[in-house]
């Protein structure tokens, strides 16, 4: 993801921002008008200065000045008025343009985030969360700089440049020609260097994202890092990535410094040049001192305009690199999408068959390889019919493919071959929302959000009442420990549930699934972290939850699945045995061996 090919035309990446600007057309036009007014004011100021200087030197006061024939005081008043007008216009433009910048950045950030939330797990196998965060914060800030200031600065400088050149041309065509020549010579290296800045800028943003990705992973694993006393090592690893970021930034800065030197040379060179020519003309009596003053200001405006343009160009190049990275996220196609029928809104097939009272589930010759390991069959030709309301236990050695089967049923991944049906409909034809709304899962490693116990359980069904949440907690035997927390259900559970034990986290997750009340229930080692006593309580709750549901249970401890309707034994991605616990024990296969080890021990 980080190494996309460089784009041919540097500005084409910025085109991706247009959809975000379009809703604010009115403000963009307003900003443009203010920009024109401000630029016009700047271009008039030197003329007013000329009048003032010439009036002060007792020159041709009576002549037609910019504001007509006025005395010294009148010309001062005119200049003050012009300055005030300029101040107000600039302030208004600053506000409008910054508003647009902030608005576009906020919208872009939300749009990218929303897009990322729809990606399938495969996406996050290749792109680390720290990297996504870095793009959401760092890259959007670069875009904000450009939309919220650089573009307007650039346009202002452009007007200033063009206007100043025109005024210079009007005064002296010969001088104008010389300046154009000078500018052309200087513009070439500036353009070349600007292009390098863009490339180096993307590289340096990528390095910063690398460091963020590493920090994100390590900060999430602090207990492990400390248990293995790897703090110093991890600090070094981060410092090394930081250092690469520094190197990339230094390289970029070096090129920009060169750019700055060129720009200053261009600005000073132009001013000195004009001063020289002008001074000679004053000496020769062909130019007034006021005209020379105006001349100098125009030259400074033109040179300053070029300088700012070059600087803005550097910023635009940086933002172009950042936009490119953001657009990659914004246009990332989720690997898993709603079925065609669901997208087309064809009622019957798109509506959740999963919501039928008691769904049946059928795996039909399902084969699956994880995208990261295309050659290895995690699921190898599995066929399994599950009747409505049936309770099935999946058992078998670690790595047999039990969790993978759940992942396929939830359509986190797409089966490589074969098909999965719920109540007769291929899950690929359902909308993802409908499919997943029909399934409640207690995962192996439950996630607890940094919120209260009440809100954590309510995640299962956001519109559930407090009473319903508490009832679910009771059924999951979570009520007893939640009531003992300092603030009961309102107690904050800490980030990632750090204030709970493993068994308590599991019970919150079970309560959440019970509250969801979906017709299909998936339990992945749901009670593995519980002590014997709470396990009995939770099993009672789960038994109640399984009534009237089609349930799949993954269990390593066979004692917990003695009451299911059927046991499916998996090994190396295949189903090796199926039957009731008693049948399987009689058959003397893998299950009998596992049972002998566990139950009789
Ligand atoms: N994201 C992934 N990318 C590549 N391979 C994976 C991925 N997740 C799991 N696997 C592999 O797929 C195989 C099946 O894994 P799965 O998690 O389904 O096993 P399991 O039966 O649930 O094991 P356990 O009982 O230990 O949870 C394993 O060999 C595992 O290494």
TrEMBL record:
It comes from Thauera mechernichensis. Keywords: ATP-binding, Cell membrane, Membrane, Nucleotide-binding, Transmembrane, Transmembrane helix. This is ABC transporter transmembrane domain-containing protein. It comes from the Bacteria. The keyword Transferase does not apply. It is found in: Cell membrane. Residues 29-318 form the ABC transmembrane type-1 domain. The chain crosses the membrane at residues 28-49, 76-95, 153-170, 176-194, 257-277, 289-310. Its main location: membrane. Pfam families: ABC_membrane (PF00664), ABC_tran (PF00005). InterPro entries: AAA+_ATPase, ABC1_TM_dom, ABC1_TM_sf, ABC_transporter-like_ATP-bd, ABC_transporter-like_CS, P-loop_NTPase, Type_1_exporter. Residues 361-597 form the ABC transporter domain. It is a multi-pass membrane protein. Coiled coil: none annotated.
């Amino acid at each position: 993801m980080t190494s996309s090919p460089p784009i041919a035309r540097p500005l084409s990446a910025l085109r991706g921002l247009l959809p975000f600007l379009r809703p604010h057309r009115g403000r963009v036009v307003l900003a443009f008008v203010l920009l024109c007014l401000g630029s016009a004011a700047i271009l008039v100021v030197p003329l007013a200065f000329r009048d003032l200087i010439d009036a002060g030197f007792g020159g041709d006061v009576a002549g037609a000045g910019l504001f007509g024939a006025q005395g010294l005081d009148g010309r001062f008043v005119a200049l003050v008025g012009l300055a005030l007008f300029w101040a107000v216009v600039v302030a208004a433009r600053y506000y409008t343009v910054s508003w647009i910048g902030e608005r576009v950045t906020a919208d872009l950030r939300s749009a990218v985030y929303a897009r990322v939330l729809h990606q399938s797990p495969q996406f996050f196998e290749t792109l680390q969360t720290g990297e996504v965060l870095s793009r959401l914060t760092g890259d959007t800030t670069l875009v904000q700089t450009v939309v919220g200031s650089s573009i307007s600065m650039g346009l202002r400088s452009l007007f200033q440049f063009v206007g100043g050149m025109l005024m210079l041309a009007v005064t002296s065509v010969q001088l104008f020609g010389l300046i154009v020549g000078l500018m052309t010579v200087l513009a070439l290296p500036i353009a070349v260097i600007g292009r390098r800045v863009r490339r180096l800028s993307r590289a340096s943003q990528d390095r910063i994202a690398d460091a963020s990705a590493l920090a994100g992973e390590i900060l999430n694993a602090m207990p492990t890092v400390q248990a293995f006393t790897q703090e110093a090592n991890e600090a070094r690893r981060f410092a090394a990535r930081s250092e690469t970021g520094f190197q990339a930034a230094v390289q970029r800065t070096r090129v920009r410094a060169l750019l700055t030197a060129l720009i200053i040379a261009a600005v000073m060179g132009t001013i000195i040049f004009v001063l020289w020519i002008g001074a000679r003309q004053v000496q020769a009596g062909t130019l007034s001192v006021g005209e020379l003053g105006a001349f100098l200001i125009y030259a400074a405006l033109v040179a300053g305009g070029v300088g700012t343009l070059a600087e803005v160009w550097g910023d635009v190049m940086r933002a172009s690199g950042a936009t490119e990275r953001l657009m990659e996220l914004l246009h990332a196609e989720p690997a898993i999408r709603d079925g065609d029928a669901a997208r087309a809104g064809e009622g019957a097939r798109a509506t959740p068959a999963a919501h039928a009272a008691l769904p049946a589930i059928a795996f039909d010759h399902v084969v699956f390889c994880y995208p990261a390991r295309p050659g290895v069959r995690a699921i190898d030709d599995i066929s399994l019919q599950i009747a409505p309301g049936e309770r099935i236990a999946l058992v078998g050695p670690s790595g047999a493919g039990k969790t993978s089967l759940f992942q396929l049923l939830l359509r986190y991944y797409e089966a490589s071959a074969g098909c999965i049906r719920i109540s007769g409909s291929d899950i690929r034809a359902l909308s993802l929302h409908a499919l997943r709304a029909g399934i409640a899962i207690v995962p192996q490693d439950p996630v607890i959000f940094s919120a209260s116990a009440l809100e954590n359980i309510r995640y299962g069904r956001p519109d559930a009442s407090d009473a319903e949440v508490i009832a679910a907690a009771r059924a999951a035997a979570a009520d007893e420990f939640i009531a003992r927390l300092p603030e009961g259900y309102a107690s904050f559970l800490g980030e990632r549930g750090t204030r709970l034990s493993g068994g308590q986290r599991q019970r919150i997750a079970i309560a959440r699934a019970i509250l969801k009340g979906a017709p299909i229930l998936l339990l992945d080692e749901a009670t593995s972290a519980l002590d014997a006593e709470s396990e009995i309580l939770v099993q009672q709750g789960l038994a109640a939850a399984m009534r009237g549901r089609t349930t799949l249970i993954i269990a390593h401890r066979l004692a917990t699945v003695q009451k299911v309707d059927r046991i499916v034994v998996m090994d190396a991605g295949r189903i090796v045995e199926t039957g009731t616990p008693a049948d399987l024990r009689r058959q003397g296969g893998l299950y009998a061996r596992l049972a002998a080890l566990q139950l009789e021990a």
